[in-house]
Write a structure and sequence with these properties.
The structure is a homodimer.
Chain A: H1 5-18, H2 31-38, H3 42-54, E1 58-61, E2 65-68, H4 72-82, E3 94-95, H5 108-119, H6 122-125, H7 135-149, E4 158-161, H8 164-171, E5 180-184, H9 189-197, E6 201-205, H10 210-215, E7 220-224, H11 232-245, E8 248-252, E9 276-281, E10 293-296, H12 299-308, H13 318-329, H14 332-358, E11 363-367, E12 372-376, H15 382-391, E13 394-395, E14 397-399, E15 402-406, H16 412-429
Parallel strand pairs in A: 3-13, 5-6, 5-7, 7-8, 8-9
Antiparallel strand pairs in A: 1-2, 4-10, 9-10, 11-12, 12-15, 14-15
Amino acid sequence: MKMKQYQKVYQSIRDDILHGFLTKDDQLPSIRQAAIQFQVSKTTIEKAYIMLEDEGYIYACAQKGYYVLVDQDALTLRRQLLEPMQQEQPKYRYNLSKQAIDKDMFDFSIWKRYLKNVMELQDELVTYGDVIGEQSLRQALSQYAYRMRKVFAYPENIIVGASVQVLLYQVLALHDKKKIIAIHKNGYVQAKRVIKDLGHTIIFYETLTKEFLQHHHIDILYIQHPMVYLNEKEREDILLWAQQNNTYIIEDDHNGELMDFHHIRSAWQKVDIHHIVYIGSFSRLLPSSFRISYVVLPKSLFEIFNKQKIQYSPSASKIEQLALANYIIDGHLERYVRKLARYYDRKSQYVYEMLRTIFPHEQIELESVHLRYLITVEVYNMDELDKYLKNNGVCVTIKHQKLVISFAGSTQENLYQALQIVQSALLQCR
Amino acid sequence: MKMKQYQKVYQSIRDDILHGFLTKDDQLPSIRQAAIQFQVSKTTIEKAYIMLEDEGYIYACAQKGYYVLVDQDALTLRRQLLEPMQQEQPKYRYNLSKQAIDKDMFDFSIWKRYLKNVMELQDELVTYGDVIGEQSLRQALSQYAYRMRKVFAYPENIIVGASVQVLLYQVLALHDKKKIIAIHKNGYVQAKRVIKDLGHTIIFYETLTKEFLQHHHIDILYIQHPMVYLNEKEREDILLWAQQNNTYIIEDDHNGELMDFHHIRSAWQKVDIHHIVYIGSFSRLLPSSFRISYVVLPKSLFEIFNKQKIQYSPSASKIEQLALANYIIDGHLERYVRKLARYYDRKSQYVYEMLRTIFPHEQIELESVHLRYLITVEVYNMDELDKYLKNNGVCVTIKHQKLVISFAGSTQENLYQALQIVQSALLQCR
């Protein structure tokens, strides 16, 4: 924003104080003198002086004028506090490791309109939100989750939060008793943190075999779809096991809307609403900066939460919640997500073909919900590869012997150029 | 928003399906027929049919036409999901129990401008935020906290989160070892929940006497200012005790900016930045719906958090963070908060005078950071009083023998009228 005249005067004097040209108890020019000196009106000078006084830089002495208040001790700190911070992270020309979305797909102007409309609801905005989330959003989510993922989510059973992690702190603390929770060994690191923090016991699994489930006592089973990829029969077995042992399953449906792109599989929750806790989020659908997730609880669990809810504070922004509610109700989210899924399908095919040329014999694996490919490259020195890529402006995540290529957030042209560099890196580091 | 023609067609057919006038496998009119029937163009009908197909209401059969897809089982649920929810909470004409702000004091149009400007930063919005908060906001907060509360907060030591509670889950889990944490017996209920969830031990105190501190082993002392109201000497003793025992103090400076209104006391943190964890929030300054709080950690603790930060996800809305950063940098927040403090000071005096007339002999206590008065009324039947007030449209929180009168969020006229009803309630229920 452009600086106003009084701000310029304010800043000039403040800088003189910070640089030590004016020191404690020095007298400032009178308002009349300063007005001539700065070539502005007396009102402007007055405004600047009031601001300096307000912020503790100067003090007024009746009938005498204005004096500097700041002493040497305060100076050093003030100077440091006003200095801009250095950028910490290096920037890469081609960043294939970022978790972003393709911004051209999202219509910011529509979203802006919804935010703007919510800003008119001043009575809503001056009060706290409901801990379980805004009623209109829970209502909209119940329809959205049903249409997109076939989830049976009554508004009364939904809790909205700023992140999946915040919701997990609430869901996994519903009972006082400590639990034994099974989670995939490569599972969501933020979920593991919550389980550990709350004092539960973690068991890791790699594949959800019958043997695993029968040989361990498990109170809660945490599944994430790309990791737990089972056919109908295997799924039925697990659900039967959950019923027989009265075990809860937490179904973390992270970006489930993008699963397998156009032939979308529905969530497990619809099969057993009494044992499945469903978690939905929008982190790769809506711009990743929006912080809204939701959980659908079985009725019995929701009732427990509802009794404890006074012990929690709302976490998701009310403005964003109300805007999202209207955005969903008007059908925008559903249309956008369906369009997005088709688009990423095409884009993943395009990237696959490029990768196949570069890696003709390697195993290439698509993780659709994460919008990335995993390529197993056995024969390379990964440290050297990483270094070469970074030196040439390409940032790629490397996990053991796997290259992780995220294709969202970069244009096709950028991806093409970046993969050319990957190709020459491979020649270099073989 | 006004419904478009294709939406009307869509809704009309959808309603016919939901009401059972069209049942599974019934054929829909052809596009040409429907266009005549609804008096709209064929394109409009096509658009509506595609939407119905997208949402799983109908299916297309090549060369034959469109048929209803939804069966009886799905109908009941869909109908319920589309029904509006009932309002749960009763509304009162005069609500003196709400935690709100005086909305006329906050300039929504300025804030809207800042939100709007941030909406232009599309590259920022499509990526995740930093777990510790946006750099520009941490920089702005470091200046704000120093100017308003004399807190020494380097941007590098600040973590931003959606709520104090979310931040406490992070701060109180920095060490693996379980701690003994002392908190005021009427302390922040959300903090107690976190302490309990994380498996720490709670000790309650009523007043922070030397005896209390010496006779208990305490790892962390949690203080909130209106509850822990000590003179300089007492404060020094506690800080000395903290240094000697290497105990952390969590200073929850909830609305500290409003403490004692114009003659603002500074926070404790400035005295010992190595042992004090400072928590700031805006819940009664900015409209309560904004979800941004921050914590200033001693350097040693921040370094531990920084190593673990991959295990957490950002919780505060990035849009609101970036808007707040610019709002602070341009000086709006500081000017607004100073104006607000002066305003609440005048308002509290006005309310005090009214209360004194109604309660000439009772103890009337101001809690400035909570913007409320506590009135101890010994001789009344509180259940009866509560009932009478609610029947007459007044909602007041009653705690044991105390009436809690929140004066923010209501106009002076409303407060006057509500207190008239309180006065007649007293006559009735004596």
